[in-house]
């Protein structure tokens, strides 16, 4: 769809955190890059907001970007808000009756409410060209994800459904495609013959930051590994693509996820979980997770998760992919690291041995580094590692701007297809079951530390 076609963006849950912190700034960053884009933002939520209060919220979010005056004025003139109980069928119908197509309905709602609203939408006349944008978590396990997909398919066709994973909107993740497929030097070595192991790590120094309501019901595995990190794995490991069409990328990503299984087939052996205890990060004193406001310790929610998987295909069989993410860690680290195998023969006579070559992709801020071994300066009989690093310019848009652009244009390139969403749960369901049954111990780590000892090989920590 051409970018100058006017589109209505109906945000359900417009009074919530996602809308305020991510969606409105995202749309603002899109307007900054494409000032002539025509989008009418309609907010709906049960929160009682006047038109002026809503406009002020939009204006404040735009100011964080900041959006230039002309597109900001134009968007603010058109935006409106409708107080709606979305679980009330009459109010929902009245809301939709006031929206014309092309229409994007963005579900910025708690997942359980989104499912109920979708059921009610079966009885509503949706405008022509209605697209649905859904947030993670998409379902709670493989079975519920399948049921949700079936419900959505009663409303619109699959190519009108956008399961949002804003990691795919990060230019650094998308850059993996250019890096992998535009470099002759990487093509022959991107496989199990040359790559020994891969780590996909998203360690944060942020603790709970007041988000117990969401996080305590989710935990690190659902919040990060089951969604974002498996999507990154999909792009890292997929077969080559003929072009950048949504179908090509979706097909290849889905194929990789279908082939992905827990390492050794056992949740007990391939997964680890832990929770932070009291500690300090910089000057911040962090209470134990179980003492954070709103946390129910009996839920046994993990704040650090690590799972090893294998992509069982010809290219990757035998290569462990370690996915790991956690909160309140001392050294934030958001990287994909490919560790290469040692050379078949190192000439005799060197005083030391070579550490493996590494390719490190920093997800934020974006950078690509090759860590290579060469003769040490001034001591040619020694080997030492040197890093060649290329910083990537920050993306033109916030990740949510990238994602929203695709949704508004009706392009599924960055969204998660139904089969891929189900595969991600199929991979992680056994881990969740094993954890629930207590078959994997809950370890602890002090906030501000590097996490429990021994989870990653000693050479995996990169300064
Ligand atoms: P919030 O709880 O902050 O916002 C949800 C909004 O929906 C609230 O304003 C809530 O009103 C409203 N709402 C709930 N039920 C109804 C109803 N029946 N009718 C009308 N409005 C209703 O959640 P978030 O914004 O944090 O999250 C929304 C979605 O985005 C979730 O799926 C989450 O997993 C996902 N997400 C969130 C991220 C974030 O950083 N916030 C990041 C990535 C994904 P009330 O307050 O009265 O309940």
From TrEMBL:
<keyword id="KW-0313">Glucose metabolism</keyword>
<feature type="domain" description="Glucose-6-phosphate dehydrogenase C-terminal">
    <location>
        <begin position="179"/>
        <end position="453"/>
    </location>
</feature>
<comment type="similarity">
    <text>Belongs to the glucose-6-phosphate dehydrogenase family.</text>
</comment>
<dbReference type="InterPro" id="IPR022674">
    <property type="entry name" value="G6P_DH_NAD-bd"/>
</dbReference>
<dbReference type="InterPro" id="IPR001282">
    <property type="entry name" value="G6P_DH"/>
</dbReference>
<feature type="binding site">
    <location>
        <position position="223"/>
    </location>
    <ligand>
        <name>substrate</name>
    </ligand>
</feature>
<keyword id="KW-0560">Oxidoreductase</keyword>
<feature type="binding site">
    <location>
        <position position="327"/>
    </location>
    <ligand>
        <name>substrate</name>
    </ligand>
</feature>
<keyword id="KW-0119">Carbohydrate metabolism</keyword>
<comment type="pathway">
    <text>Carbohydrate degradation; pentose phosphate pathway; D-ribulose 5-phosphate from D-glucose 6-phosphate (oxidative stage): step 1/3.</text>
</comment>
<dbReference type="InterPro" id="IPR036291">
    <property type="entry name" value="NAD(P)-bd_dom_sf"/>
</dbReference>
<feature type="binding site">
    <location>
        <begin position="85"/>
        <end position="86"/>
    </location>
    <ligand>
        <name>NADP(+)</name>
    </ligand>
</feature>
<feature type="binding site">
    <location>
        <position position="204"/>
    </location>
    <ligand>
        <name>substrate</name>
    </ligand>
</feature>
<dbReference type="Pfam" id="PF02781">
    <property type="entry name" value="G6PD_C"/>
</dbReference>
<feature type="binding site">
    <location>
        <position position="46"/>
    </location>
    <ligand>
        <name>NADP(+)</name>
    </ligand>
</feature>
<feature type="binding site">
    <location>
        <position position="136"/>
    </location>
    <ligand>
        <name>NADP(+)</name>
    </ligand>
</feature>
<keyword id="KW-0521">NADP</keyword>
<dbReference type="Pfam" id="PF00479">
    <property type="entry name" value="G6PD_N"/>
</dbReference>
<dbReference type="GO" id="GO:0004345">
    <property type="term" value="F:glucose-6-phosphate dehydrogenase activity"/>
</dbReference>
<protein>
    <recommendedName>
        <fullName>Glucose-6-phosphate 1-dehydrogenase</fullName>
        <ecNumber>1.1.1.49</ecNumber>
    </recommendedName>
</protein>
<feature type="binding site">
    <location>
        <position position="166"/>
    </location>
    <ligand>
        <name>substrate</name>
    </ligand>
</feature>
<dbReference type="InterPro" id="IPR022675">
    <property type="entry name" value="G6P_DH_C"/>
</dbReference>
<feature type="active site" description="Proton acceptor">
    <location>
        <position position="228"/>
    </location>
</feature>
<comment type="function">
    <text>Catalyzes the oxidation of glucose 6-phosphate to 6-phosphogluconolactone.</text>
</comment>
<feature type="domain" description="Glucose-6-phosphate dehydrogenase NAD-binding">
    <location>
        <begin position="11"/>
        <end position="175"/>
    </location>
</feature>
